[in-house]
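Input (structure):
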């Protein structure tokens, strides 16, 4: 289940965090600093699900995304994310 805390989006299974995305919220953008997926749960698209969630948050709140995390930078390189990317 997706959960949110200040500066963190994460997925839990049986009270264990299986994937997380860490970000810093600024006035007009989110600086996404890291993602992590438990090795047992990799290659299931969980990190991408978290990226999609922060993209939705950015769009809903008229903010941009600074992808400090290399995974996030790669995940939002497509033109369909131009509206939220800091260029």
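Output (sequence):
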């Amino acid at each position: 289940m997706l959960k949110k805390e200040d500066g963190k989006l994460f997925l839990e299974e049986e009270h264990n965090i299986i994937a997380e995305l860490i970000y810093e919220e600024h006035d007009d953008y989110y600086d996404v600093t890291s993602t992590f997926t438990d090795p047992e749960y990799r290659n299931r698209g969980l990190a991408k699900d978290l990226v999609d969630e922060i993209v939705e948050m950015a769009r809903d709140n008229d903010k941009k995304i600074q992808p400090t995390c290399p995974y996030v930078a790669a995940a939002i390189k497509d033109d369909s994310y131009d509206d939220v990317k800091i260029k």
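Notes: The beta strands are 2-5, 8-13, 16-25, 29-37, 64-67. The first strand starts at residue 2 and ends at 5.
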